Amino acid sequence: MNKYACHKESFSNDSKILHICTTKFLKKQEMKVLKFGGTSVGSPENMRAVMDLVTDGEQKIVVLSAMSGTTNSLVEISNYLKKKNKDTARIFIGNLEENYKKVVAELFTSEENKKKGLKIIKDVFQTIKSFTSGTFSEVGENTILAQGEIISTNLVTLLMNENGHDTKLLPALDFMKIDEDKAADLNYIREHIKPVIKEVGDAKYYITQGFICRDADGEINNLQRGGSDYTASLIGAAIDADEIQIWTDIDGFHNNDPRFVDNTKKIDQLSYNEAAELAFFGAKILHPQTVLPARVQNIPVRLKNTMNPTDDGTLITAESDGRGIKAVAAKDDITAIKIRSGRMLNAYGFLSKIFKIFADFRTPIDMISTSEVAVSLTIDDTRNLESIKEELDNFGTVIIDQDMTIVCIVGDIIQEEHGFASKVFNALDGIPIRMISYGGSRHNISILVPTERKKETLQALSDNLLNGL
Ligand code: ADP
Ligand code: ASP
Ligand code: MG
Predict the structure, then answer these.
(1) Residue whose CA is at the smallest distance from ligand 2 atom 4
(2) Which of 44, 412, 419, 424 could form a disulfide with 107 if both were Cys (CB 3.0 to 4.6 A apart)?
């Protein structure tokens, strides 16, 4: 039987952001930040739809992702260059450039703007091609990955100006920054965004790149895959926006992952804590960190569907509507580590020695559970797994299970009537649960299952827990 179980380190950057925010307030701006994802800008037609949506006469900052599929193509190109397969990389670069030439031909009306569009494409692809000779470094990789957002924002800015909308481009690389620990440097962003806005000059609409930033050395870097959501909320916090809107290809936050489960339903309202837990534990609709900057400054986050803009979407605020279990999400690529040791019996300091090993290798732990003779925990960063195992071997027998998934059930669990845990267990009858974490937070219960049983687990929770509500 578990002695205790808890979650750890989900929001390790939160206190830092809070400190920054409470020490430096800026004058409130009545400005919204709107972010449009890859599908929303995925074709000339969709780019025009975005233009029509944002040009309502209210000043705003619009954050754009790369056109859908572009970042994946850029990752592929980088991988070929890493493997020194330059010829294949060149073929992929050529194909992508041809696709963008077609986008330009369709997007602009005047010959002058078609020429300007082609110049944007030519410059970007020259940058990408420059990495096909010489040695390929991490800086090269990050520079290539940044080009998708650079293209989409330049094209949409030109499109909006061609259509008579007063629009300026804010270069994200001039104000978005991460620190030595790769955490967003909100203080820096706050200090630099206003001078950048001033420098580019007055405009009704500002467009900027999601995802990309500079690192502590000033080199191009990024906020990890899906990071444009995070860009929007960091900008929202930096300018103290009155709303952050994340526009995507679905009508809002669903109560389960629609990619794996039938009959998922949109949730109208979520609290910051609920949304943060779901995003952290794998709900792809939001980058894991997105909610944090908005939460510390109490800025509402609204998820909207670009294809159905009149729908209210999902509103995320400090309020919870107290409806008990709200949603489930799943995070893959989890590794479970069990350390079995007689030395744990009646010993103090055992766990701290174990945790120190993970801290020394800068590896966050997600779930933990202990018994008298064993401790189980999970990690998702396996870069130092071999070295961690070597150290753990000094403490007992170490068993490692890969290809595991954390399924996280989120809601105001205290509001649930008695028997919540038994409801979960009944729903999951027959599914091998490797670990369970309950009580670490009132918003979350997490279970660890083999990834091959994920779909079945999510569907069972939908059928037995969520859809009965
Ligand atoms: P964007 O390119 O706009 O950032 P994403 O693909 O990153 O869009 O996120 C939207 C997708 O997230 C949806 O199309 C859906 O398949 C997926 N998704 C996963 N979990 C959820 C969820 N709980 N609610 C809504 N969508 C989800
Ligand atoms: N273009 C980046 C990606 O595909 C960032 C984003 O879309 O949010 O991961
Ligand atoms: Mg996304």
Answers:
(1) 71
(2) 44
Secondary structure letter of residue 462 according to DSSP: I
Sequence-distant (≥ 6) Cβ neighbours of residue 185 within 8 angstroms: 177, 178, 179
Output Rg (C-alpha) for the chain, integer angstroms.
Answer: 24
β partners of residue 389: none
SS3 state at 318 = coil
Distance from Cα 285 to the centre of ligand 3, integer Å: 6
Please give the sequence-ordered ranges of beta strands (E in DSSP) within 249-387, or none if there are none: 269-271, 301-305, 314-317, 325-340, 367-370, 374-379
Q: Render the burial of 302-330: b for 16+ CB within 10 Å, e for the rest.
A: bbbbbeeeeeebbbbbeebeeeebbbbbb
Q: How far apart (Å, rounded) are the C-alpha atoms in residues 31 and 239?
A: 8
Strands 205-209 and 212-214: unpaired
Q: Which of 8-12, 133-137, 199-203 has the lowest mean pLDDT?
A: 8-12
Question: Which of the four pLDDT bands, split at 50, 70 and 90, describes residue 415?
Answer: low
Supply 12's token pair. Answer: 């390790």
Rounded CA gap, 176 and 172, in Å?
6
> How far, in Å, from the CA of 218 to the mean position of ligand 1?
31
Whose Cα sits closest to atom 5 in ligand 1? 285
pLDDT tens per residue, range 57-81: 999 999 999 999 999 999 999 999 9
**Which stretch of 116-130, 202-216, 240-254, 311-325 has the lowest confidence by average pLDDT?**
311-325
Q: Which ligand is nearest to the CA of 225?
A: 2
Q: In terms of Cα–Cα distance, which of 11, 53, 409, 76 is closest to 248?
A: 53
Q: Which ligand is nearest to the CA of 72?
A: 2
Q: In the 3-class helix/strand/coil scheme, how is 33-48 assigned residue by residue? A: EEEECCCCCCCHHHHH
- DSSP secondary structure letters along 58-120: S-EEEEE-PPTTHHHHHHHHHHHHHTT-HHHHHHHHHHHHHHHHHHHHHH--SHHHHHHHHHH
Residues with CB under 6 A from ligand 1: 37-40, 65, 226, 248-250, 253-254, 257-259, 283-285, 329
Sheet holding 435-441, edge to edge: 5-7, 367-370, 374-379, 325-340, 397-411, 444-450, 435-441
> What is the percent of the chain where pLDDT is above 90?
80
Tell me the C-alpha distance between 325 and 247, whole Å.
25
Say which residue, 441 or 291, is predicted with more confidence: 291
Helix (H) or strand (E) holding 206: strand 205-209
